[in-house]
Amino acid sequence: MFAAQSGDASHHGQNGNLSTGDATHSTLAEVEELDFSKLLEKPRLLNIERQRSCDERSLHELSMTISPHISRTENIGYRLAAEHLDFGQHSPRRSGFNTPRSPFEPHPIVGEAWEALRRSLVHFRGQPVGTIAALDTSDEKLNYDQVFVRDFVPSALAFLMNGEPEIVKNFILKTLRLQSWEKKIDRFQLGEGVMPASFKVLHDPIRNNETLMADFGESAIGRVAPVDSGFWWIILLRAYTKSTGDTSLADLPECQKGMRLILSLCLSEGFDTFPTLLCADGCCMIDRRMGVYGYPIEIQALFFMALRCALVLLKQDVEGKEFVERIVKRLHALSFHMRSYFWIDLKQLNDIYRYKTEEYSHTALNKFNVMPDSLPEWIFDFMPTRGGYFIGNVSPARMDFRWFCLGNCVAILSSLATPEQSMAIMDLIESRWEELVGEMPLKVCYPALESHDWRIVTGCDPKNTRWSYHNGGSWPVLLWLLTAACIKTGRPQIARRAIELAESRLLKDSWPEYYDGKLGRYIGKQSRKFQTWSIAGYLVARMMLDDPSHLGMVALEEDKQMKPLIRRSNSWTF
Ligand code: GLC
């Protein structure tokens, strides 16, 4: 744990020039008429003046055309302004308490969720800078009393959607200052660009002083640096910029530098033969040994998304230009690699099943020398006739066929997945609803590792026993990612079903961190209560479903230059 003793003067309030003016407001009637594809075609009224090499403008137009501030209750936050945006299929919405509600009445747990989210706010020298991971009052706090970068993302999105961008700006600047600390684990110095996994505000009642402590992996269980933190930081910076129209934050020289430092870490040349990013186990949301070392899908999808966001945010000055060129090249190679080698569907599965091995030369079909015998039994039943997904990992002679929720949703949001692949992922979720959603959304991965596999892969981790925690547990936070993916693919009815399941239990169960069991029926064995990202994840999902224009904050449209392997029919409107 690193502690700052002084000099952490904040940058708050600089250039806080929010520009979501009246011109961006649509009337409710307009909102009601639109479906998502139409929203995408609306001209942008507010402009972020930046040269973009990626084709990401129209999603920007979407978020700028319809403001998040349609209507709002005082401090419980959001009102269901766009309840009528229903995209066709309709399941009548009922509250968790079985009371019929008028379309403009927020779900009863929305107010409670906002109150719980506000209770989790962490202040530093008088300003809100983040949200605590869990407000659990149990003794075993571990590090849940800290502000985690990845955990703060759904909180940040909730605040942005609710028209409260200041805390997000404070967080972005504060974590940027932490990045500039000298980071050492034992005698080894970490890369300059590493962002912390988490930080904490320390109060000194005697000196009446506050200082920050940050963890870059040196205190974390397993001592792994968080590879995802830097990516989430860039993604959040774009979400802030997009939602507020305020480019001045991203344009600050220190923000530009912070981005370049993160990018240097992952764009550096080495011995790699793949464009994917090599990492240690436990360097992302799954932060314990779970066999996610190598090239895990979560990191690759976040890497892709962060690269695309950086492309939008980087200034094309002397320093920025070099990065832009490297990013564009990497994106091309990365999307090709992921779309070709990580993708599995019935046909691909059958091809692997019939693979020959020991093929030498560039004409090899089985490029990574995967042994068909390594195909796990479960996948033959799990694979639907329609549908597919990005598998967990691909490296020499090793394919991890497990389904990971976060990576697949981010692949959809970032357009790492082609439109066909995105649709196929949604088809899979629909046809494997019981396995992936069950009674509580959403399985972090599927299936669970059991007996021998559990022993070897997790190292006998008692927290990660089968169908618990990271090993096939159900995490409500993933609801916001699912909802965003559903809206992007034009299938909000899937999100609606999942949200209703969550609404029937989350408040009653005091917002658990995760649920256990094949169907996610039981509150997790060691699950925290009042886990902030469960609360914020629900709110973001709810707000996005009620006003799909929020999607632009977290989604990027397909980049036509990336030439997907399969072209979609003309009906695709992105
Ligand atoms: C757990 C999760 C991790 C999260 C942290 C704080 O360790 O695995 O993803 O950031 O809790 O909530």
Automatic annotation (TrEMBL):
GO terms for molecular function: endo-alpha-N-acetylgalactosaminidase activity; sucrose alpha-glucosidase activity. Keywords: Carbohydrate metabolism, Glycosidase, Hydrolase. It comes from the Eukaryota. Its EC number is 3.2.1.26. Transmembrane segments: none annotated. One of its GO terms (biological process) is sucrose catabolic process. InterPro entries: 6-hairpin_glycosidase_sf, 6hp_glycosidase-like_sf, Glyco_hydro_100. It catalyses: Hydrolysis of terminal non-reducing beta-D-fructofuranoside residues in beta-D-fructofuranosides. Coiled coil: none annotated. It holds the Pfam family Glyco_hydro_100. Residues 1-22 are annotated as: Disordered. The keyword Hydrolase applies. Residues 12-22 have a biased composition (Polar residues). It is an enzyme of class 3 (hydrolase). Invertase that cleaves sucrose into glucose and fructose. PANTHER family: ALKALINE_NEUTRAL INVERTASE B-RELATED, PTHR31916. Belongs to the glycosyl hydrolase 100 family. This is Alkaline/neutral invertase.
